[in-house]
């Protein structure tokens, strides 16, 4: 991790951000809108004030400080048995799905906007990374069916990991690496296998150590080490930190909660990570709003509009045809779920981190960053604000006993 990840971290500004985030969360809860939208608006408002918030949204800050806890918190909520049952469908969504989505966007930006193939490919991969924070928050307030919640959250986590791997491969090619399919395939397998190994190698020993104590504060501390340690270990060996932390989170949320972590510690761990996720999402979306005001979006409005339409088309291609292949299997997905997976494929922090991390050798680097911020803004304000209406119109609200993914996690733990 570079020192730049923390050099702009101002604790006075952080306190102000958390105060604003608390007020926004209260207001958004009352009006029943995703708080990520309110946070982004608050970030824009703060950026327009005479007193500026001296915190910059940098790729290092996102990758090494903010992203690992978000991935870990989501992963520990996922119950293994339903996840394993849905895994063939999920892998189809994130392997061919991400490839198809990236190809649609890359081809469109090359032929319609005139970007180089390298720049278009980078943009296609980074914009394929989804971040449905607003959707998950809506699920928790509107109580959708448990399988839909599982599919959206799990697909997003795996999607982010695959997109990050694809981006790393493109960085290697941009630096002069081989673009031959065989070499790319080998690198893909090495990256994914290395990430899974790093996640397991970090989580398993520390979970065993957690089993030697019943002090919930120690147990919480060990999960913090697992979240960041798995990410940093994988990145050290040039593998996907996202996939590593996802693997570690699944291990902690399933194997760890089934015995190694004490009964008192389990609830403490859940409460701690729920707070951490709120804290980090607050910082991310306020900083996104602030950065939006610095982007010359009007100067690239035509490219931004084209990119937004292509990103929606790519998401549609990644969801509908892939799920059609499972129409006659036990994993068939209702059309209502498909619509939510399509429209709920918001873009967020990871897409922006990848955009900001583009190599300087990419000819369209500055334009790509601005267009990425425009697409993210569209997904937050248009898709994020409309997703509650979509869920209600599709009739996907259910009773509390069938809704909460966290209750499935607890029930599975109790059975274990």
Automatic annotation (TrEMBL):
Lineage: Bacteria, Pseudomonadati, Pseudomonadota, Alphaproteobacteria, Sphingomonadales
Record membrane topology: Multi-pass membrane protein
PANTHER family: NA(+)_H(+) ANTIPORTER NHAS2 (PTHR10110:SF195), SODIUM/HYDROGEN EXCHANGER (PTHR10110)
Protein name in UniProt: Cation:proton antiporter
InterPro entries (UniProt xref): Cation/H_exchanger_CPA1 (IPR018422), Cation/H_exchanger_TM (IPR006153)
Regions that span the bilayer: 12-28, 35-55, 61-80, 87-109, 115-137, 157-180, 192-210, 217-234, 240-261, 273-291, 297-320, 340-362, 368-391
Signal peptide extent: none
Membrane recorded as keyword: yes
Family (UniProt): Belongs to the monovalent cation:proton antiporter 1 (CPA1) transporter (TC 2.A.36) family.
Keyword list, A-Z: Antiport, Cell membrane, Ion transport, Membrane, Sodium, Sodium transport, Transmembrane, Transmembrane helix, Transport
Main location: membrane
